[in-house]
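Could you please consider the sequence and fold following this short note?
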Amino acid sequence: MIVPDPKVLRELLTRYASLRIAQAEHAVPAVARELEDVSYTLCVMTGTRGIREAIAAADALLLEEARHKEKESDGEGDLSLAV
């Protein structure tokens, strides 16, 4: 599986949340279309069929990326430190 860019996932999740809020405050067809587009993109990027699953998958990928970065900063991922 191709792993999506974490930065892009974060941007899409942020955009999704903003659009959901905007749609809840005042339903507008243009916002509904954009929300549908962002939802579809999240599903495609995470290999899921529904937005709930896409959000869960994106969260899991971002958590894994954060754990990986934490290990690297602790020196666990840096082979150059091995003697």
Summary: Residues 51-73 form the longest helix (23 residues). Residues 6-66 form one domain.
